[in-house]
């Protein structure tokens, strides 16, 4: 019996000052982010789900709410799906105008392969795989949804697809309210990965 575990990135966050919020509590969805969540809820209604899991952070919990409303399932909050830690949390982090322009920040940038400024990629992959397989087991043969965050989803996908983990964040294929789907084979192991953007029409212009 095959299954698919869909990893949904949360919707847009209200963040007019472009702060790197990371693991900080209290960051809610913007009005557009709420619309994205509703689109994801509609997208999910035809899925045969056996489990719905989400990161405990507010933006993920708000994104998963419309999915819960479409299915007769309870929500499981899973800390394995949480955002990666980052030394620059709480600071502006834009190329050319944020924390990176200050020399005192450069001491954290010595190892992009680990990376030296945040949660190690190896640890991130391990906990995201735990989250994936926990959703698989909870779904009992049906599909499952996990609502998580951009970096954890992208690094998990990169590891599965054999892509090197050092990367340009601007080139991650994991936009707001996107869906990265991991298809599992009859043995419950990852067979293939696909990607879609159900709320593409709501994405802010670049």
TrEMBL record:
It comes from the Bacteria. Gene3D superfamilies: Phosphoglycerate mutase-like. One of its GO terms (molecular function) is phosphatase activity. CDD domains: HP_PGM_like (cd07067). It holds the Pfam family His_Phos_1. InterPro entries: His_Pase_superF_clade-1, His_PPase_superfam, PGM_Phosphatase. One of its GO terms (cellular component) is cytoplasm. This is Histidine phosphatase superfamily protein. It comes from Candidatus Nanopelagicus abundans. The lineage of its organism: Bacteria, Bacillati, Actinomycetota, Actinomycetes, Candidatus Nanopelagicales.
